[in-house]
Amino acid sequence: MQHNVLILDFGSQYTQLIARRVRELNIFCEIFPYNNPPQDLSSYKAVILSGSPFSVRAEDAPHPDLSGIRGKLPMLAVCYGAQYLAHFNGGEVAPSNIREYGRANLSYIKEEELFLQGVQTGSQVWMSHSDTIKQLPENGVRLASTNDVENAAYRLDGEDTYAIQFHPEVYHSTDGKLILENFLVKIAEVPQNFTAANFVDDIVAELKEKLKDDKVVLGLSGGVDSTVAAVLLNKAIGKNLYCIFVNNGLLRKNEFESVLHQYKDMGLNVKGVDASDRFLTALAGVDDPEKKRKAIGRVFIEVFDDEAHKLTDVKWLAQGTIYPDVIESISVKGPSATIKSHHNVGGLPDFMKLQVVEPLRMLFKDEVRRVGATLGIDPELLGRHPFPGPGLAIRILGDITPEKVSILQEVDAIFIEGLKANGLYDKVWQAGAILLPVNSVGVMGDERTYEKVVALRAVESTDGMTADWVHLPYEFLMKVSNQIINKVKGVNRVVYDISSKPPATIEWE
Ligand code: XMP
Question: Which residues bind ATP (predicted)?
Fold first, then answer.
């Protein structure tokens, strides 16, 4: 993989967004914590310094060593980076006496500067800082100002070093992406060649080289990440990839059979293992959500380990890890975060002692989907809603029985099919049904009934961290509710969840 742009992270909440914006320009970039940068910078063509929650004047603030970078590679310093450069190079940074947070507009733009080419006076920018640069460093040239922030952008004369006080990566900075493009493409001349097709070519070659004739085992979940990882590995090593798809008995209706079928059609060397009974036995009588999760995790490891043992000479465990997980584990917050529990090998199942290969570890979720599309994976599979690992177990409140699973599978299938049939599925980020541990009174024909209540949940979100309930049309809810009560024996009432996250969560358990 080519290393084009290095983003040094000083702990800003927006660092991942910088990477997203750079990738949108088809430029490959990597985030490293400022205190643990790569040793070899020879393959990087530009460096971006992120913002930070610290003030440069604080004693414990990040003090990066930029001697290997400044003046040697084009550098863009954002917010904290801009202040850091000023503070330690003869400029002056002081607490600001007005609030410099939120939207502002550029009131001055220096003419004929490549960095701000195409940006008009009045352009909206997003500020988020409490210190301000009172005086530029010695060779600083002011490039832009707002009414309140005189030194909103500057460069250092005689070198390709640029600094901006505002955040180009934030959506509210209208020309932010253009400024990044000016810096990366026009000034640093970074090639825009990071496309899904190029990624596939590069990673397949890399996997071939790395894995040679070794055998690799991978757990498929039916989700996007493990599927795309499997197809890439299959392209690289073919039948030496052994996929295992476990039915925990808590999947959606018919999902195990239909997804297994799809996997086989895709040419994957996959074994379907129906371990429903093992999971349901382990879950019998368990009603605490965390105990359910633990039991499912434990049984999954047992089942996977049993299957992996049936294979001989396996050297690698493949995982569908994606970039946000990687960034999280190398965060500035400290080395403790880098120690993942499975690195603590004592007493672990054998398959966890295998070497790990993660073909998607440099990709964001939307990039995984684009790679999947390039690989010709069914768009329906790529567009599937997220589904939790513990599956329906955390949507059956209270204890779990095969009957409850079956009721919920029927309800869920009617809801999801209904969303698809009415063109609503792709407008929803995640949807599902929840079986409540209460009975309510109803009347069907002349009969009094006393049956289960189900809740329907449909949310919009981008990453699951926050979410809002979707305003599904009443007509649709009415139809689905009628269908559920008429068709699913044991259910006589349907409610719709209208809670946002926070304060609620997406799942009920
Ligand atoms: P919450 O309920 O925390 O869910 O708002 C956020 C997202 O995470 C999924 N989720 C899980 N996924 N194992 C998983 O693999 C779990 O134990 C789990 N709990 C919640 C949930 O479906 C939603 O997408």
Answer: 221-227
> Distance from CA of residue 144 to its chain's centroid?
34
pLDDT tops 50 at residue 454: yes
Tokens read off for 484: 């559920």
Q: How far is CA 23 from the centre of its chain?
A: 14
Q: Are 145 and 139 in contact (CB under 8 A)?
A: no
Element (H, E) at 428: none
Q: Is 265 annotated as a binding residue?
A: no
Task: Tell me if residue 114 falls in helix, strand or coil.
Answer: helix
- What sign results for the dihedral spanned by CA atoms 295, 300, 301, 306? positive
Going from the Cα of 386 to the center of ligand 1, the distance in angstroms, rounded, reads: 9
pTM confidence score: 0.89
Do 388 and 292 touch, CB atoms closer than 8 A? no
Name the fold adopted by 401-496.
Answer: GMP Synthetase; Chain A, domain 3 (3.30.300)
Fold classification of 196-382 is Rossmann fold (3.40.50)
The domain segmentation of the chain, as residue ranges, is: 4-187, 196-382, 401-496
Query: pLDDT band for position 335 (50/70/90)?
Result: very low
Query: CB under 8 Å to 470, separation ≥6 — which residues?
Result: 427, 428, 431, 458, 459, 460
Using one digit for the tens of pLDDT, what is the confidence trace for 40-89? 999 999 999 999 989 999 999 999 999 999 999 999 999 999 999 999 99
Whether 4-187 and 196-382 share one fold: the answer is: yes
Atom of ligand 1 nearest to the CA of 465: 6
Six-digit token string for 347: 């007493």
Cα–ligand 1 centroid distance for 318 (angstroms): 22
Q: Which atom of ligand 1 is nearest to the CA of 293?
A: 17
Query: What span, in angstroms and rounded, lies between the C-alpha atoms of 153 and 166?
Result: 8
- Whether the CB-CB separation of 372 and 224 falls below 8 Å is answered with yes
Tell me what pLDDT residue 340 has.
37
**Three-state DSSP class for residue 502:** coil
Helix H, strand E, coil C: the string for 247-271 is ECCCCCCCHHHHHHHHHHHCCCCEE
